[in-house]
Amino acid sequence: MAKLTAEEEVDLARRILDAEARTEAALQGMAVADDILDESPRRKERTRAGKVQRLERAVEAAWEAAKEDPSLRESARAAKMAWKEAEDLSWTLAMSGRRIAHGEARKLAGPFLAEPDLVQEGYIGLLNAARRFEPDRNIRFSTYAKWWVRAQMTRAIDHTGRPVRLPGCAVEQLRNLRKAMKGLDTQGIEYTTNMLAEEVGLEEERVQFLLSRGTTVSLEEPVEDGRKARQVGHFLADEDADGADELLVHEQELARMLRGLTDVLPERHRIVIEQRYGLDGKPQRTLSEVGRRISLSRERVRQLERDALRLLRESGRIREVAA
Description:
Layout: H1 6-27, H2 31-37, H3 49-68, H4 73-95, H5 98-108, H6 115-132, H7 141-160, H8 168-186, H9 193-200, H10 204-211, E1 222-225, E2 228-231, H11 244-264, H12 267-276, H13 287-294, H14 298-314, H15 317-322
Antiparallel strand pairs: 1-2
Helix pairs in contact: 1-3, 1-4, 2-3, 3-4, 4-6, 5-6, 5-7, 6-7, 8-9, 9-10, 12-14, 13-14
């Protein structure tokens, strides 16, 4: 896709806004959609992102409601088509800046994430930017999108590229430090942490902290985890959890038990017990759910369950079969 001019970017952004407006108009009067669109945001919205997310949820809710109420189908279909047009235009605008994703990926690629993976993250950043871009801001989309691309990439490095997650700002600062170190090495200049601190505009203690990342980490060392700091040990494996051996033994025992149920119980009784108690590897189901699956009433399923449990109590053969 060719690079868009400033006028073409603005025109495309206005077409996106128009498609979103037609989507919202088609949803007017649908209670399930109005409830979502009228939700008050938990905090002040500085971009269109919150409104766009609510609009997307409203379209999906209206589409599901139309499956049950035929009178809503025409409006839901119109909203769906307008929303698809907005999404297609947003993708077109996002992909007009894909060179930004490739350029930033080349800068940030390293041992944590490879360049192709970062390019994909960059595309996500571009789409986020396209959904937030407002044509009246008098700013080029490429300029606006660059921040979102870099933020998405550094977040990906933070979350998936390290065994211990660092805050996004720390990832960016560490990258700047390494860039400064590489530049000084190229010039053959011996540097100290104080020189690096002046080079990147950080305090010396902060530089020492960042450069220590990647070395041995104490299990008691605090790591930022949202609003709450937790120790590194919190993110390690739970030694009390079942291991692979225990899970294998459990699966073998369950398989023997199912074979025992097959020999002791009639087919319908066995199906009821398996589904009621989750012996088929799926979550436990209610009497009504089991009834719908085997075309029986809730009361009949309850009777079958009662009879099956009585048969199991009276029969000692299941222990022989499952042994």
